[in-house]
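Still learning. Any example?
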Amino acid sequence: MHYQSALAEEIRASAARLLAEDVGPGDITAQLIPEHQWASADVISREAAILCGAPWVDELFRRLDSRVSLTWHAADGDKLEAGQCFLTLEGPARILLTGERAALNVLQTLSATATATRTYVDLIEGTGVRLLDTRKTLPGMRLAQKYAVTCGGGHNHRIGLWDAFLIKENHIAACGGIQAAVAQARKLASDLPVEVEVETFEELDQALAAGADIVMLDNFAIEDLHVAVEINGGRATLEASGNVDATTLRAIADTGVDCISSGALTKDIASIDLSMRITRSYSV
């Protein structure tokens, strides 16, 4: 399935899951509000952030009640300031309150991923190095977090186990070596990129000799990354991975590697502080 169509389907499916887990058979507290009471509400970011998650929120309220109107004052990928209102909703008061938590949950999580990504992207600005995500995503949120990474200015590594080969230590051991693993990958799907993870210069030489498209340099020291770039000589795309954080990122980028991957973008995130406030309530 094409990525865009898969993402659209995931938005629909995840919106349904979010409502099922939170609303269940019905929002009993919302029943305290008269059925014909309408309201307007603002959604505010309590801290600086990169916005992400608008398509999910649109789908959530579409499923709850098509009478709800959403006015976005910022788009996914935009920078929000602390205290900024980025969304105004208007519709049945019951529905706004029923959808509040599900909407904020997805916004705070995806905005956290986008914000973490933008922070890293800014640190390597001007180097030409691409920042990549990994498969270390929150359970059930693979495509959503991959989307959030792109909103933050990063790039997606493989989406799953089907769209590229990544030959790691255990694959190499089970296949009988790097050469054998790469050769088998070419036989299975010659049109897919083949990446090999290496931990030593010897393995780097083997991966290059085998014709790997991409070589992941796993936990190489900074000085060793410089050497690896010289050894490679532009033959394969070099990806640095491991020991990546805000304190090491720029130094890694300055070694001349092509890209840097980090699981922290998707797994080590702190939710963005958001809130929704009713600004007007009226009968219709």
